[in-house]
Amino acid sequence: MSNEMRAVPVRSHTGTIPAGVSRAGLSHDAGKVLRNTYALLSLTLLFSALMAGVSMAINAPYGLSLVCSLVALGLLWFVVPRTGHSMAGIYVVFAVTGLLGFGLGPVLNMYVSGFANGGQLIMTAFGLTGAVFIGLSVYAIRSRRDFSFMGGFLASGILLAFVLSIGVLVASMLGYHLQPLALGVSAMFSLLMCGLILYQTGEIVNGGETSYVLATVTLYVSIYNLFTSLLHLLGFASGDD
């Protein structure tokens, strides 16, 4: 969690831009991390989408989706933190996003085959996710507010939501379908991921995050969870879930 940093004025009283500050009001280092983060994030999203397409094309089983997600989770917890400041971290990021993308394929196939408007639901969730991400990112960059105060709340909330999601999954495997709780978890994840996008973007623009690899992973996971949560909520709202 970074120390509070005040917004830097774009221009001084003499009308010149202060040294080390870009026209967007970001320091040179923060601007570089932001550019590298968005470049790597774009590539990982494309790669993830490609892997999801492959998974859908070969009709990968749902069990394989769970395995991919668990392996990706292991990489996130134990490998990414150790490689986030090295070139090796880039390869790990692609491994994580590729696994999550491949694991998403069976879920998307389930919506396509199980809902009369499955394709529309997927595109709506995709559009909403993109709009939310862009809107929150623009706000965080333009305002340059310090969102570090959200760190503890987000960590606790995400841990709670994760534990609850595991509980819902186990109950479902045992034949108990806790639909209200499942919807509540999806709503929690949606709100938490919005907060995480603000928090991570704020950390970048205020200089609290210096690793574009770690920033990319955080933003990708935010987008991924926001998309799947919105898809679940939209599926329920359609009346066929």
Task: Walk me through this protein's architecture.
The radius of gyration is 19 Å and the shape is globular. With 241 residues, the chain is mainly α. The protein has one domain (28-237). The chain contains eight helices and no strands.
Q: Which ranges are low-confidence, i.e. pLDDT below 50, for 5 or more consecutive residues?
A: 1-23
**Number of DSSP strand runs:** 0
Helix % is over 70%
Average pLDDT metric: 88
Coarse shape: globular
Q: Note the total helix count.
A: 8
Domain count: the total is 1
Q: Hey, roughly how much beta strand do the residues contain?
A: under 5%
Which series of helices and strands comes N to C?
Answer: HHHHHHHH
SSE topology sketch:
Layout: H1 28-57, H2 62-78, H3 80-83, H4 88-114, H5 118-143, H6 151-173, H7 179-205, H8 212-237
Question: In a nutshell, what does this entry contain?
Answer:
The protein has eight helices and no strands.
Keywords:
0% strand; 75% helix; 241 residues; mainly alpha; 8 helices; globular; disordered N terminus
